[in-house]
Design goal:
The protein has 310 residues and is an alpha/beta fold. The chain has helices spanning 13-22, 42-46, 72-84, 99-102, 114-124, 146-154, 178-184, 201-210, 221-225, 229-235, 241-256, 262-276, 284-291, 296-309, and strands at residues 2-4, 29-31, 35-36, 63-64, 66-68, 89-94, 131-139, 158-167, 192-195, 216-219. The protein has a ten-stranded parallel sheet with strand order 3-5-6-7-8-9-10-1-2-4. Helix 11 (241-256) packs antiparallel against helix 14 and helix 13 packs antiparallel against helix 14 (296-309). The chain is globular and about 60 Å long. The chain binds flavin mononucleotide. Flavin mononucleotide binds at residues 5-10, 33-34, 66, 93, 95-96, 135, 164, 195-198, 219-222. Residues 5-10, 33-34, 66, 93, 95-96, 135, 164, 195-198, 219-222 line the site of flavin mononucleotide (FMN).
Amino acid sequence: MLILAPMQGLTELMFRKVYHQCFPGAIDSSVSPFLSLTHGNLADAWKKIDDVLPEANRDSLPVVPQILGKEPLEFVDLANRLHSIGYSEINWNIGCPMRRVTAKHRGSGILPHPDEVRSILDYILPRLQPALSVKMRLGLQSPDEIFPLIPILNDYPLLSVTIHPRTGRQQYSGQVDLDTFQRVLPLIRHKVIYNGDICTPADYRHLRERFPQVQDFMIGRGILFDPLLPLRIKHNHPDDLPATLRFILALTEAIDRLPIREESRMRKTKEYWCLIRRSLPITEQQSTTVLHAQTPAETRARLHAILEAI
Ligand SMILES: Cc1cc2nc3c(=O)[nH]c(=O)nc-3n(C[C@H](O)[C@H](O)[C@H](O)COP(=O)(O)O)c2cc1C
């Protein structure tokens, strides 16, 4: 199974919907960018609830809502509300590396504190109506921090444990630590989902060969760099510039329908274009004309011009 990774600001409903409509079946599932329980404040999480409302997600990728936070009462409250609107699984983010998050023992900041993880799971699991899965890193400062956590995770009924084998301190730099991942894998009794640095079918094949017991892979940035990646992995799909450009056009049109200022819509369009354009077999000049478009209509016209020139 291929799962779209949660990426705040990038893989919200609009992206998931356009992706699903352009490439049905390419990705099997997704996890939403986190709903944050800042200081146990449910109102903060509720602000983003539109992203996971089942009605709005109907013609989109299946999604599992993710919660970031360590306040057990509010966690249960939010998770059970999500259950009441139709979600049977909730994902707990204990991997976020942002300093303002980790400083408060949230995200990967909780990983060096196994007792806190145990006391949260102890409180929430008997009270939780949906099933729980976890998305984590190897540790905050050291990849060895995961080892005291494993017996704790093993003590509870979790649907899956997604591991991004970096530390929080590493953020996204350096290499994924596949040696530690290999040591961790036989110790976890739950289904393990691998996540990190899958950018080509060869990356995926290498991981499948090295970890044949892992069946499920979560991909984030690789799909933004190359939206066809899941199809290349699953069906050996060849290069298909028109399909990728049509996807970008559909994304641009969807961004244009967002109820935000034109300036913000342009910024968002350019953010995606900067990620995707690298993998496209187009000239530097074609790429730059799209980047320098001044309005959404101009962006679309320039994308159409590339499409017609193929
Ligand atoms: C811009 C950005 C936003 C992210 N937001 C989230 C998030 O909301 N929740 C989460 O669990 N991980 C988040 N992540 C981490 C990704 O889900 C994923 O673990 C990470 O990018 C590694 O996978 P990749 O190499 O396939 O991209 C984010 C990553 C990026 C780059």
